[in-house]
Structure formats: C-alpha cells, structure tokens
Amino acid sequence: MSIDLGVLEGFIVRAKRATYVGDGQRAEPSRAGSHDLAFADGVWSYRDSYFGGTDFIGQEVVWLSGEPVWAMNYYGTILRPELIDAARAGLTIKAALSAMYAEGRFLGGFEWNGPHGTYRDASTGGVAHFHGRETIAVGGIEAYALDYAGGLVKA
After folding, report:
1. Closest residue by Cα to residue 128 from 5, 2, 4
2. Which pLDDT band holds residue 24 (cuts at 50, 70, 90)?
3. What span, in angstroms and rounded, lies between the C-alpha atoms of 53 and 90?
4. What would the mean pLDDT of 50-58 be, rounded to a whole number?
C-alpha cells in the first residue's frame, strides 16, 4: 500500500489536535487500565492508548482503511516534582503542542515559553521514521521529560 506521507502527517496533526490537546472524547479502553482517545476522518482512524498519569507510557496508532500504517510509542515522567506537577506539566504540554500543531506539524523541533516553564521538543527523522524527546524546564532545570519513537508500520 502506497501512502502519501504529507496526507498521513496532516491526518496525524488533526488527530492529535482533536484528542489529547483538544480534550477530545474518551474512547472505550482497548486494554485493562488504559486511557484511550480516538479520532476518525474518512478512511483514516487514530487511537492514543496510555497507562498512568504523572508517569505514563502509551502508543498512538493510525489505520488506513482498517490496516495499521503508522505508530508511535512514548514514555513521560515528572523528573522534579518539587518544580512541576502533572497538572502544570499537562497545561504546558497542551499549550505548546497546540501552537506547534497550528504550524501543521508534530516533528522538527519546537520551543515554547509559558507560565509553568519552557517546553522544548527535539526530534530527528520524519513521519516515516523518527525519534525525539520533549522536555519542560523550570528555572533552567529539566523537570519533565518524554521520549518517543515511531514511523511507518509495514507487513
């Protein structure tokens, strides 16, 4: 199956914007104890499924006509709870990612300053194969970090 990477990336940005960042509707848990968010648009569908809260792990998957074509895994943690809590980290992440998605992308590096810290994202690669790290620094000290990797899924 041939996939237009630009169309795929556009769908991923719309899905991310509509789910976690947009406080989208929760989906039925796909696994015991998971928190799931889902989005669909025509032949494309997306699910973000994660476990935990302050420290969390998850996976995002995109399907094209029912076939999995792209996935990303991630793990995030509060490194310095005396500097930031899960609520302030979440507000910072949502605001920063909202600004990044407004640029029509989710990769390629980004920095955003907010009331609870400085959000930074650094990644290598493109939608077909990538890895990266997002952080929040408070007073110049890294207080939160999330590592992620993903790309195309081929049978």
Report:
1. 5
2. confident
3. 10
4. 95
pLDDT computed for residue 2 by the predictor: 86
- What secondary structure letter does DSSP report for 149? E
Rounded to the nearest angstrom, the gap between the alpha carbon of residue 81 and the centroid of all alpha carbons in its chain is 22
Mean pLDDT score, 43-53: 97
- Separation of alpha carbons 11 and 39, rounded Å: 10
Amino acid at position 84, single letter: I
Q: d(Cα 42, Cα 36) in Å, to the nearest integer?
A: 20
Distance of alpha carbon 113 from the chain centroid: 18
Query: In the chain, where are the structural domains located?
Result: 5-152
The burial class, CB within 10 Å (0-12 / 13-18 / 19+), for 65 is: exposed
Residue 1 has pLDDT above 80, yes or no: no
The phi and psi torsions of 129 (rounded to 5 degrees) equal -165, 120
60-93 confidence digits (pLDDT tens): 999 999 999 999 999 999 999 999 999 999 999 9
Sign of the torsion formed by the C-alpha atoms of 74, 80, 85 and 90: negative
